[in-house]
Specification:
This is Two-component system response regulator. The chain is α/β, with parallel strands linked by helices. 49% of the residues lie in helices and 14% in strands. It has a 6-stranded parallel sheet with strand order 2-1-3-4-5-6, with helices on both faces. Helix 2 runs parallel beside helix 3 and helix 8 packs across helix 9. The relative contact order is 0.11.
Length: 217
């Protein structure tokens, strides 16, 4: 069961999404919040698997709320940030805050539900209408480390190869074609990479690769 917190200052949107989630056997809407401060408080008390936060909310916006949720001790909630605006700055701030996804509200309800499933299992995603250059631009703005960290030695040569392809913003399907392996095999490699490097999701694997000089800026 995927436990979800919905945070949006529009009650109609929250009601609509709750109605959609109620039709899904693997979801439970455990809470709703009408502003950012309430979202942070409910995330701390309810500890949902996924929190869906609108960017524009009163008292505390969704990006600041994301930062607060992600920085809380012991937090294991995944955050999806929603907006009606395709803004580079919003994406950068969401990624920096530790969000697992940035999505436009124009998504069909079933696509948003699918995104929640993706976030709950530990992956990250950006709305397909927001181009992959955003991840690359965000990552290349980071000053690389002086030397490779010791934990990179834990990766096999194939895992390191997969990490480089993830850093190129390739999907699992694209990596599978490139390496002539099955998509499930790629998923296994990605999961092991994240575990070995202590990373939350593939977006932050991209950041890690750029920060540690695995991909040229």
């Amino acid at each position: 069961m995927i436990r979800v917190l919905l945070a949006d200052d529009h009650a109609m949107f929250r009601s609509g999404m709750r109605a959609v989630l109620d039709t899904q056997a693997d979801f439970e809407c455990v809470g709703e919040a009408a502003d950012g401060r309430e979202a942070v408080a409910q995330a701390a008390s309810l500890r949902p698997d996924v929190a869906v936060l609108d960017v524009r909310m009163p008292k505390l916006d969704g990006l600041a709320a994301t930062e607060a949720i992600m920085s809380a001790p012991g937090n294991d909630t995944r955050v999806l940030v929603l907006t009606t605006y395709d803004s580079d700055e919003y994406v950068y701030r969401a990624l920096r805050a530790g969000a697992s996804g940035f999505l436009l509200k124009s998504l069909a309800p079933e696509e948003l539900v699918s995104a929640m499933r993706v976030a709950a299992r530990g992956d990250a995603l950006i709305d397909p209408t927001v181009t992959r250059r955003l991840v690359s631009t965000f990552a290349t703005s980071i000053e690389p480390a002086a030397a490779e960290p010791a934990e990179l030695e834990r990766l096999t040569s194939r895992e390191r190869e997969v990490l480089l392809l993830v850093a190129d913003a390739s999907s699992n399907a694209e990596i599978a074609v490139r390496l002539h392996v099955g998509e499930e095999t790629v998923k296994t490699h990605v999961s092991r990479i994240l575990a070995k490097l202590g990373l939350r999701d593939r977006v932050h694997a991209v950041v890690y690769a750029y920060r540690n000089g695995l991909v040229g800026n």
